[in-house]
Write a structure and sequence with these properties.
Helix content is 87%, strand content 0%. It contains six helices and no strands.
Length: 128
């Protein structure tokens, strides 16, 4: 179960790196606007907010990636702590998104299910 949790956390980290790219680097492009459902005007107006938010996603992904590396290199407590903190924060952010904007439930599921499964699998694996 630990390996499954780490793999799922790695997938979640990759998704969040992609979200970072969309929010911080490509926010005003057609791809990002269609993904997030924003107009040209909305994208221009919210560009700075999206830039900042994208970095939050990147930092969570980095925490998970460092945690996976640490866990694999026998620093298991520190590694598991970082993975659980990063993936747990991803899942919690998705929960906040769906509770605050129910119309964004699909986006919340895309960003939150995999890290939530990672947390569950890792906790079960660590408990055994």
């Amino acid at each position: 179960m630990i390996i499954a949790g780490l793999v799922l956390a790695g997938i979640a980290a990759l998704v969040h790196v992609f979200i970072f790219y969309l929010e911080s680097l490509a926010w005003t492009t057609e791809r990002a606007r269609s993904t997030f459902g924003t107009s040209v005007e909305e994208a221009q107006t919210t560009k700075q907010l999206a830039f900042n938010q994208g970095f939050y996603n990147l930092f969570l992904a980095i925490a998970v990636a460092v945690g996976i590396v640490l866990y694999a290199s026998s620093a298991r407590v520190a590694g598991a702590t970082l993975v659980l903190t990063g993936a747990g924060s991803m899942a919690a952010a998705a929960l906040v998104l769906v509770l605050s904007s129910p119309d964004k439930a699909a986006a919340a599921l895309k960003q939150g299910v995999v890290p939530a499964l990672a947390v569950v699998a890792l906790v079960i694996g660590l408990a055994l």
